[in-house]
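input
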Amino acid sequence: MFVGALALAAPAGAVTCANLQTAINGVANGGTVTVNQGTCTGMSFTLPSHAPGFTYTIQGAGTGATFNGGASGNRILTGTDVGIVTLRNLTFENSTAPTGQNGGAVDIEGNSGVTIDSDRFFGNKVTGGTIMQGGAIHISSTSSSTVTIRNSTFGGATAASGNSSSGSGGAVTINNPGATSMQVIGSVFRRNTAGFAGGGLSESSNGTSGNPQVTLENSSFTQNSASADAGGAVLSSAHSLTVERNAFSHNSVVSNVDGSARGGALLAVGFPSAPNAPLTQIGNRFDANHIGQDGLRSSLAPGGGGEWVGGLDLTSRNDRFTSNSLAQAVGGGAEAEGGGLGLEGCGSLGTPTDVLENLVAAGNQIAGEGHGAGVYGGGCGGGTVHATVLDSTIAGNRQTDSGGSGGLAGGSGDTLKMRNSVVTANVGASLEGFATRTITNTDACVLGSPAPGPGNICKPPKLANPAPGHADVHETTLSPTINAGSNLFVPGPLTTDFEGQPRILNGVVDMGADEFKDGFGGVPILSKKAKVKKGKARVKVRCPKTAVGHCTGKLTLRSGGHGIGSRRFSIAAGKTKTLKVPLTRAAKVQLELGPLDHVLARTNAHDDIGTKKRKTRHIELKLAG
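output
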């Protein structure tokens, strides 16, 4: 029955909870079942089997229908070989699957295409050990139809509102043993928990037929947690993955098992059956995610405080890894790797080629000794990583031991190509490892000197504040990286910096992910009245702090449409100077008769990167004394 007041009449054709199963059983191909606005309590429903192309929708009327718990000992919704079904504008809450079964609120399997559209899931769970999956939803599809989750919410502001799984996929698990593509778009995952991996989401696509795509886009993962791997989400695919414009914040792995723990927010891995599948990432943010432990571990090897990528060919553009962290490694031979981002190539997964463009890794930390507090790329089991770092900034990262590295690290068999980047101002060595390095036009230090290669420098980058908790990698007017890169090495598609402004300003690309936007507005004239002594007018001007380096230009004075004096200048940024401007004979004669009013003073100037500006002011000239 419905609980709660219904002020409006039910829409024509809408069904009650009591009649919903009958309506589902009788829906026509292409039809829609609309459930009355309100709450169905303690009821379970079954989706009947249909042919693979049979399509239908179940939706809530008005502000939506709510299902509060299933029947005793059962989840809310179950189906196998259901055709192609869309669930829209529905809320599923407080549902628990039978012990040892998957899908706390919804379990759909077999030849089924599923779309979850504008639905909400709160407080659902599965129990029965670490093999269980999908605290709110479990979908295991052999269909060729795409499984889609769109504009939906999993968990809320309180811990009780989150969904939980004793195994993987605290909120959602999607498995594809066939050709099903999977996409999660515009959805929210908050405060969900998994007893093993994927605090919010677990997706696995290992089908060998077709070319199934795995897509994660415009979604947010906040305060989700897992006990072994992937605090926010775990994605695995034998084909291709796309991860675009998502936000991962304050997710965590709190390991309660000995061994490795990967991906504080995101773990993306391939399959040995299809090594080097492509992973494309654009515009994602990984902030304040963490891998720790329960305090009882005899061994712990944490990796990828923000993200860990294993065996996939990663192309990353405009991704940001900020203020993520790893706990100290525990046990003989265990290492902490990749405080922000970790890349791994294991023997069975091939040799991945990873390309990082406009990447920001700042303010990430490893407790104790670690490798690559910003970014780590290394092999295992005979595998290697080929890393290319372009127009990126890895700065302000730290590990707290005298060994290890705070910036970018690789293994002894890995290769690195780096262009137009900043890898310095980290605590611990900024650059470590890699069997082969090809570095040009980069701010990177090796034993206190520029890394070998043309155009490299070794200077403090003087960024705004890249340290933990701030992770601000914007260049300042004092940054030596401004206009210090090489346009030849900017990839053609890379037309903007990490924030979307033009990648090349003022003619030459900067080193690092940020392209400095000059705030120079010209040299202001401070004097309202200028005294004239010995034929020279004393006019005070200021080079603003927003100028890069110096203000260089010319001050001119005009009266009655004629030039009466000029003076060139070069002034350091933030400094004020009184210019002594020689006056023409005619102007000096006029001054003998009295002050000159409405003299037009004009500065034409540029700073050290060439931005030109003009400032004008009317002043009065008067003989001194």
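quick obs: Residues 253-279+291-302+309-336+344-517 form one domain.
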